[in-house]
Amino acid sequence: MANGELSERPLSLSVFFPCYNEQENVERTAQRAKEVCEGLGADFEIILVNDGSADETGARADAIAAGDSRVRVVHHPHNMGYGAALQSGIRAAKKELIFFTDGDGQFDIGEIKLLLPLITQNDIVCGYRLDRKDPFMRKLNGWMWTRLVNLLFGMRIRDIDCAFKLFRAEIFEGMTMSSAGALISAEILARATRRGYRIAEVGVHHYPRTAGKQTGAKLAVIIRAFKELFKLYSRIRKGQ
Length: 240
Description:
The protein is α/β, with parallel strands linked by helices. It has 7 helices and 7 strands. The protein starts with 11 loop residues before the first strand and ends with a helix.
């Protein structure tokens, strides 16, 4: 896709949300996404990735899709992890640009308007949280994680795991993604950096969760992420 081409015709945009036990959020999130995409005049699709939810997330997502052909649902048979959900969303996307944010409603998808101007001259645009509305320990863990990942992979990303990212779909052609857990954002950015893709950043607002529960701060999730991180570091150093 040539630079500047995006401004010459309607946006071709896939928006997807990884969802795990988000029955109280999925309808509101999907509706807001439709409103924003319609306002952009985009040729769009919305993909809801139900990562084996144990609540009514899957059924509610199916009901949304049944009422709008622009909405599709991808179901995992069981909870496979955040990285697996992102991989499913990326594989399902059919448009030229791919955007994702979490299904918990902690970001306003309307702020995609801040990312779109930057994608004309870049391959990836990452949001970073201006005022992260999470508990102190979660913010501290995120700060340390970001600095470790940047150090290992020679990057300078302000907020590695901020779930507000826009990609040119072409960057995923031939890209191996092996992370099933929380490492997925770090893996995508590290592989993109190694391949010479251009990455821009912009600040976005972060809002308190109003329903559902966070899962990323669980000890098992953190331990899994660190194990995957050092395996990824070894693979990338070997050119894998």
